[in-house]
Amino acid sequence: MSTQLEVLQNALATALGDRVTTVVALGEVTLTVKADDYYAVMLALRDDATLAFEQLIDLAGVDYLTYGEGTWDGLRYAVVSHLLSVQHNWRVRVRVFCADDDMPIVQSVMPIWRTANWYEREAFDLLGILFDGHNDLRRILTDYGFMGHPFRKDFPVSGYVEMRYDEAQKRVIYQPVTIDPRENVPRVIREENYGMK
Description:
The chain contains three helices and nine strands. It is α/β, with parallel strands linked by helices. It has one domain (4-141): Beta Polymerase, domain 2 (2-Layer Sandwich).
């Protein structure tokens, strides 16, 4: 008798063939797909009756710049999606790497699952990943004048600009960051009886 995980693996292999690379770890299946095959694979995952992944439950962008403490030598940006089949009661993770690190772009899956709308906007806003075919790709968490993408590993912790209310102009203005970089040194308490009563 085969387990549900084995049934899922067989169904994935039959439906998707060599368009994906499958890894099973900790009882979870992760599919890695090439950017050119991404949309077709996601459509097959939803429409194939043996798979029936009706729901996209999460989609996020990933920056692999410092992954493995800098030992990563693959493409920098990826999009990771989590799919759920209510009918079969199983899940799968799908990872696709953006083919170009300078202009990270993948096909939007919003026509397949409408829930991808805000997830893709978040990945665009925070990591700068573009989704081809998304009809409303604009910032969702940062303001419209924000410079850069704050979840990129090379984004400075202090940012590039800060905003403040200018009393003379009676409006909010942007200016270069004025925070002086400093090191926080923890205070060391060396009393023998500290905290004891």
